[in-house]
Request: fold
Amino acid sequence: MKARIRIGAGAGFSGDRIDPALELAEKGGVDYLVFECLAERTIALAHRERLSGRGPGYDPLLEERMRLVLPWLRRRGFRLITNMGAAAPRAAARRTAEIARALGLSGLRIAALTGDDVTARLMAEPAAHPLLEREGTLADLGEAVVSANAYLGSAGIVAALAAGAEVVITGRVADPALFLAPMIHDFGWPAGDWERLGQGTVIGHLLECAGQLTGGYFAAPPEKDVPGLARLGFPFADVAPDGSAELGKVEGSGGRISLATVKEQLLYEVLDPAAYLQPDVTADFTAVTLEELGPSRIAVRGGRGRPPPPTLKVSVGYRDGFIGEGEISYAGPGAVARAELAAAILRERFAWRGLPFEEVRFDQIGRDAVWRAPLPPDAPEPLEVRLRVAARAPSAALAAEVGREVEALYTNGPAGGGGVRQSVREVIAVVSVLIPRAWAEPRVEMEVA
Amino acid sequence: MRLAALAHARSGDKGDTSQISVIAYDPADYPWLCAQLTVERVAAHFGPLVEGPIRRYELPALAALNFVFERALGGGVTRALTLDAHGKCLSGVLLALELPDPQGRGG
Reply:
């Protein structure tokens, strides 16, 4: 058994920077480089693109990432694991094989992991599947359903690694499982070893957002100063067979890993820290201890685990109408009063024209748009505000009326309104259902370049 | 005194649920923060933006509190009409919470 393995994080979301991944690939000494690129809704958007023929259904940056990273994979001898397969892991694997051949990397073994797409099975009997977030069942969404993908665990990736895959491309897999799989593969952790699976999940969870561990989403000068954010390095973990790990980053890269950055990321998007529900394990973060070993070098121990829930979570993407938006700015004395007047005019126009919006929201950017909490009584009058109007509509044509009415304020509204922008977008929303584990069996297909 | 003087925070989202960790810069301040940063005080600070219940989890090993806010994101990132549909800015909102003068703490 290896004394330790080094797992690097090459991306924390679909559009993430590529240069820090290349830095890890070239200088990081990694055994595995993991690209986590699939947010909750991304897979539904990819399905919609694939179905409409507007896109291949895999991550739009897959080709660029593979072209740049694969030469290093061969030179340095690491393996790559990614969920960039999105709605089309097999097509992504075939495309990756083409890229590998063009780069002269013949023989590269690329695994496509499928089995997460449970759309057909769920929609065969939609009324049998209650929604987790609200009343109702999948039958209430009916034709609007675009996709249903179960969160798979690590088993399929472990099988692909055991079959000799150098690149593993998945669709929907629980994010920490992308990192847990190589630990299980190299250290031979048995099923039911909840303690180590829990600790491995802690490490995977810390790495899955890449730069959020090394000082991204953290800096707040002057108290929380982070050096070199423009060249932020992505993290790696040196994992020992017992699951304990040391976090680090490439010497000379930007950012900093500190006790504070690790604590923030450990709790990021965690609800009950004693019960972090995963398909592989229910992880418990409450006894995790951190120790600073040196600059950007933190030891992590103490993650624990219990058996996972008997069900798997499924994200269901569905068409949920359109959102129309319009924005206009006001500056100087009385800017807030003019923005409020503009909002009042729009409310009256919407009512008088009988525009059947399902929901309308007014914000003043610079005052209460992202603040949203009650304003303190001593809140200062801003030098400028930007009125933002957003409305939900069943059709794109109706949604577009929001921007049209905002634009008309140029010549028909309060004094000094400028900088109108307007947009319309289709909404693909997500709800969740639970399924028996047996409904989503991972399948591995190997593509050889 | 604002909470930001004693603690840092990070917000995340799960569907329509917002989550904000609050971590003491100095672990010695943690018991005082636990006493001051009650669910009631946090609820009053956020007001009607949080439509559902608020839960607080204590993590003494990290000198951290984890707050979970149900129905706080206007339906969640995939469909909310809000500008910051993730609620990423809400950590900053929480750090602006006014706390009593720290002179009185420790007793």
